[in-house]
Structures are given as structure tokens and as C-alpha cells.
Amino acid sequence: QVQLVESGGGSVQAGGSLRLSCAASGRSSSTYTMGWFRQAPGKEREFVAYIIWSGRSTGYADSVKGRFTISRDSAKSTVYLQMNSLKPEDTAVYYCAAVPLGSSFSRPDYWGQGTQVTVSS
Asked: Is 6:95 a contact under the CB 8 Å cutoff?
């Protein structure tokens, strides 16, 4: 079992920046692929970014490429999402997610409770 706890959400004006954090705890959590999904009001949850346990491979949704950067501190089992040049359409609840080593990130096994990000124009 893995527990994920997010922090760092908030409100910002368009063009601003926020950094989300997700701390993982539990057996072998440092080896999990971790990342983020988001869900805007009235929309389905969508993939944002992922990073493998070593940090050597990452992936991003086209909508955030060049603006968001995912990183991790494996010693702390913590993943970060640096969000720059934020747009109103980035407004959503952001969920941290994790899957075991070797599993697809498209269907995460574990989820955090979510943190709200609101971008005003």
C-alpha cells in the first residue's frame, strides 16, 4: 500500500507559477512511477505528467509541454510539478498518482486526495 499526500495548490493570476509536491510513503514507494493527473469542473480526469523512479524518463501532456516540469527527490520519495506560464484552462484539481515499477501510468494504482489550482485571467 502506498499513501500519497499533495501540497502546494492555490490561486494565481495567468502567467504566474505554482509548484505542487507529492510525498509518497509505503513499501517500495521510492521505486514507483509517479506523476499527476488533473480534473477540471465538468470534464474527465486527464493525464498531465509522469516520471520514473530514477528520474531519467519523463512524459508530458501536449497541453503542458514547455510550461510544466516534473522532477523527483527519490531519497524523500517526493515528486514535484513546477507549473509556469499558467493559463486559466489549467484550473483544475490536481491529483498525484503512482504505479509500481514496470506498470503503465495510464491506469494508476494509487491516488492522492487532490489539490486545487485556480488560475484567474
From this structure: yes
CA 82 from chain centre, in angstroms, equals: 9
For residues 115 and 93, the answer to whether their CB atoms sit within 8 Å is yes
* Helix/strand/coil (H/E/C) assignment for every residue in 69-121: EEEEEHHHCEEEEEECCCCHHHCEEEEEEEECCCCCCCCCCEECCCEEEEEEC
Closest CA to 99 of 63, 61, 47, 62: 47
Query: Using alpha carbons only, what angle is made at residue 39 by residues 37 and 45, rounded to the nearest 5 degrees?
Result: 65
Distance CA 12, CA 4 (A): 24
Parallel, antiparallel, or unpaired: how do β-strands 10-13 and 115-120 relate?
Answer: parallel
pLDDT one-digit tens code per residue, 7-50:
999 999 999 999 999 999 988 777 899 999 999 999 999 999 99
Distance separating alpha carbons of residues 53 and 12, to the nearest angstrom: 30
